[in-house]
Fold:
Amino acid sequence: MADKNNKSSVFAWEGKDKNGRPTKGEISSKTLALAKAELRKQGVNPTKVRKKSVSIGGKGKKIKPLDIALFTRQLATMTKAGVPMLQAFEITAEGSEKPAMKDLVNQIKNDVAGGTNLADSLRKHPVYFDDLYCNLVNAGEQSGALESLLDRIATYKEKTEALKSKIKKAMNYPIAVVAVAFIVTGILLVKVVPQFEEVFAGFGAELPAFTQMVINISEVMQEWWYIVILALVAFIFAMKKVLASSESARNKMDLFILKLPVIGPIVDKSSIARFARTLSTTFAAGVPLVEALDSVAGAAGNVLYREATVRIKEDISTGQQLQFSMRNTNVFPALAVQMVGIGEESGALDEMLDKVAGYYEDEVDNMVDGLTSLMEPIIMVVLGTLVGGLIIAMYLPIFQLGSVV
Structure:
């Protein structure tokens, strides 16, 4: 229950700003009371606050992380080219094919036009712009280098989404193999095996054990196929529900995935790449290392690296060097630790972290390509074994009958 209570919700609000002008937006908070308190801290007098669903837009029109990455790149390109901020928002909104994205950009534009700085305007939409994103934008506004920071954020979002896409691709192949195997086996058991069963009924002899087992499974499938499908759907739904509501379950799943053959090393290297990419981006933006590690922990994507990052932050707070803190966790490979050490000694930590991220992103890319080529023969072997096994089971009685004759 504690996990559920700690989960933040998104609240849509309307109110008046410090100058008494009407304004509205969204805020992420654990409770309605905390949301109102946070708004008052920001100088907003809320008149209406209500809990809302996470997504906006119609079916197929939801705003995806890739849309935010594209928006960031467009904004970075136009501000770097000297296009005024409000005009950049107008161009971006007009060029968007999704009504939901167009509405989001217009809301941000209206807030900025009303005198709210960009970081605070983005914070009103926590579903799409997380703390890391908003903090980096804020750092750019404070330092007067918003154009270069937006470019860094755009690169970070593009690299992160590309990495996520590769991981999904790696995870989808085994799922596809299992799904195809289940479908083919189900069709054979329900449609093909019964035809042989009618033939065997006229033999008047005892069937081989393997054949009888397949026939028994076929009879169960014919009688209870809908129960099997419902049970499978219920299991998948229950797993999603448990993972969504229980942090402990998610942590166990994270550790389990790391132990899987082929998939585990891909997820492991992607976590290292995400750690290095996030730390490089935040550190280069001028965020102090200890504060940057907070953002890194939030973007770790895996409990093993999240806990390791928390331990690193504690060590850094006591004056220890990053390379030694990373080594003490026994999580990061020697190559990553040594490159971080070189970066610390040369005063170019952000550049070396960027190289670490690039190296492991390439590793993930190569491993996913390798998995893709590996899965093709595996699919053939799995399906061949299933289909071949069923064919052998069906023809065993005929072979035995032929040997008797």
The radius of gyration is 28 Å. Confidence is low (pLDDT under 50) at residues 1-6, 54-60. Residues 146-201 form the longest helix (56 residues). DSSP finds 16 helices and three strands in the chain.
